[in-house]
Amino acid sequence: MSTRSATAFPPHTGKSRPDDARRTKAAGVIVCVDVGHDPRAMIGHAQAVAEAFGVGVVLVSVIETHGTGAKAIDPLDWEIRRREVSTHLAYLAKEFSSEDCEIGVLVLEGQPADQICNCAKKGHHDILVMSRGSGEERWRTSKVARGVMASGVGAVLMVPAESTAKTFKGYNRVFVPLDGSSLAESAIPKAIRLARTHRSELVLCHVTPEPVLTEIGPVDSETVALKDRISQHNRRVGQCYLDRAKHSLKDAGVPVSARLVTGGDARRMLVEAIAEEIADIVVMASHGKSAHADVAVGDVAGFILDRSAVPVLMVRQTGKRKDNHIFRNARSEGVRHPADMVK
């Protein structure tokens, strides 16, 4: 079950060429190109995101080297392969030439995940664009993608392989999942920048937690009543949270709507809501309330990265965690806060 509310606000009103490693340092978005797959949809999304953040794009392809003990590669064959990859990237860069987005190309050698992460660190690239598998691999990110995400380097824009056959036409609706934590809310500023740039609607979504009680044997009326009260409480608090979130964005310069979803696994309910809202892109934080420091990607974020039918921009909170929660200035009547107790 879900409820939805909306408030409309008036929308806010370098040439591409192949280049070398020194030039690509100015880019902020890396597109991880696998020569065996069509990367055009990835490049389109990369340009759209780069435009919003005022940065360039670099196409990166890694020629994978084999470990020790593997058969030596003929130097001539290796050079031919390197030139073929370079030519392919140069062709793509020329095809996507635009006055609005600068594109560079870079060919690396080594283990793909390691090389991509090192490139991101050295060049201060903030967003890595990758494609998710199709067919039997549809719901599984690649080994390289998992390695990159596990490194914790930058934000990740995951583009489903099935969208590679479609022509990118921009974003009409930007979907932002919120679980009530300041970590989840850290994705909102980037979502707003995307929405402003592409004149999109911002869709905020909160899934209320399903009441879980210990139930052994027959369920009595008291248990049923308790679960019902908890469900009503969660819906009330969730709606209040979304209302306050919408109010806090009244001057954001973009149309804002909110959807409250109840009853079910938050991960699956979010994937369904993304489809029902006809979202064009999801912008979400890598972690929410749980925020386990030893996990590079939270359970909900990982599930949506794997299952969403539209691209997902997963952002990470940089620097020290800040108390920027939507309710940071809220006070409950009749409650004595620690600061108030000091006389």
From TrEMBL:
Residues 1-22 are annotated as: Disordered. It comes from the Bacteria. Gene3D superfamilies: HUPs. Residues 29-160, 171-316 form the UspA domain. Pfam families: Usp. InterPro entries: Rossmann-like_a/b/a_fold (IPR014729), Universal_stress_UspA (IPR006015), UspA (IPR006016). SUPFAM superfamilies: Adenine nucleotide alpha hydrolases-like. Belongs to the universal stress protein A family. PANTHER family: STRESS RESPONSE PROTEIN NHAX (PTHR46268), UNIVERSAL STRESS PROTEIN UP12 (PTHR46268:SF6). This is UspA domain-containing protein.
